Automatic annotation (TrEMBL):
One of its GO terms (molecular function) is unfolded protein binding. GO terms for biological process: protein folding. Residues 1-17 form the signal peptide. This is J domain-containing protein. Residues 19-88 form the J domain.
Length: 355
């Protein structure tokens, strides 16, 4: 019994452990420069001063921002990264090398190293020197079809990416060309300014095609047309950084459910008898669990039953859900026999007078 409890505890710890590479959206073997650039982009995206919305959305962004900073603190350290790769987050704790982990001053310090005096005691973006912009290749946008069930429970889609990669080639080339402003004095009080191009000789390169497998994480509650970004997986650029690869989620229509924000809508057809006396039935949800639906009394076509908490999970809050709205449609018989008509008339005799 004790061994079973220990195994369950270990499994729970593994499930709850954070994947620092996934947080920074980089592969496990990523170079330090790739980790650094990915951190820079994510830190700006989730910085509390950059996120607009409700207090809950801002709180979620602040937590994400702290996780991003903690992940970078670990992966940017050769010692911490080595321990993490071998023993995971628990190993960092045992070696006392986990770092800040909770944001606060640690997150501010790491962020300020990238963006100069951007904090000034708070989270503002004023001050500091503007970072030099590095040329980037073109971003690539790819539509990725997913099912409504994928967006409900989450999934991982494996995609093969065929891309051009720069490889060493024979010879040299002129690169890093830039225009330099030159000032020449022509005489007393007379100056001439002109631009002069400077070039450097660099090793030559050639493009080759390379196929790489990417795992696109579709998280519960993601929305249609939401983008999943793979930094520097876009088109390469000589003497610059590669662009990004953006997967745009496209939801395939579902035969039974329709999404409306965080809510779900479903059409339920019942018989005329059920419409007159009430009904009780079950509807199979996207993940296979059964949802009980019932209504008493006479139900008119178009009646809506609302089931709280049976809608889509909220993105980054998968423990919370929208609602499920079920619209009732009544299936009328195509025809009645004379005997059935007489029985109906007898059954509802005097009902018109009561109404």
């Amino acid at each position: 019994m004790a061994i079973r409890c220990l195994l369950a505890l270990l499994i729970l710890q593994v499930a709850l452990a954070r994947d620092y590479y996934d947080i920074l959206k980089v592969p496990k073997g990523a170079a330090d420069s790739v980790i650094k650039r990915s951190y820079r982009k994510l830190a700006l995206q989730y910085h509390p001063d950059k996120v607009k919305g409700s207090e809950e959305e801002k709180a979620a962004a602040a937590k994400k921002f702290a996780d991003i900073n903690h992940a970078y603190e670990v992966l940017s350290s050769e010692e911490k990264r080595r321990i993490y790769n071998r023993y995971g987050e628990d190993g960092l704790k045992q070696h006392g090398a986990q770092g800040g982990g909770g944001g606060g001053g640690g997150a501010a310090d790491i962020f300020s190293q990238f963006f100069g005096g951007a904090f000034g005691g708070g989270f503002g973006f004023g001050g500091g020197e503007e970072e030099e912009q590095t040329p980037k290749g073109h971003n690539v946008r790819v539509d990725l079809e997913v099912s409504l069930r994928d967006l409900y429970v989450g999934t991982t889609v494996r995609v093969l990416r065929d891309k051009p990669v720069a490889r060493p080639a024979k010879g040299t080339r002129k690169c890093n060309c830039r225009n330099k402003v030159v000032t020449r004095q022509l005489g007393p009080g007379m100056f001439q300014q002109f631009q002069q191009q400077e070039c450097q000789e660099c090793p030559n390169v050639a493009y080759a095609r390379e196929t790489e497998a990417l795992n696109v994480a579709v998280e519960p509650g993601m929305s249609d047309r939401q983008e999943v970004v793979f930094f520097e997986e876009g088109e390469p650029l000589l003497d610059g950084e590669p662009g990004d690869l953006n997967f745009v989620l496209r939801t395939r229509p579902h035969v039974r459910f329709e999404r409306a924000g965080n809510d779900l809508r479903h059409n339920l057809t019942i018989s005329l008898v059920d419409a007159l006396v009430g009904f009780s039935t079950e509807v199979e949800h996207l993940d296979g669990h059964k949802v009980h639906v019932a209504a008493a009394g006479v139900i008119v076509p178009g009646h809506v039953v609302r089931l709280p908490g049976e809608g889509m999970p909220l993105f980054e809050h998968p423990d919370r859900h929208g609602d499920l709205f079920i619209t009732v449609t009544v299936a009328f018989p195509k025809a009645l026999t004379e005997k059935q008509k007489a029985a109906v008339r007898e059954t509802f005799k005097g009902l018109h007078d009561e109404l």
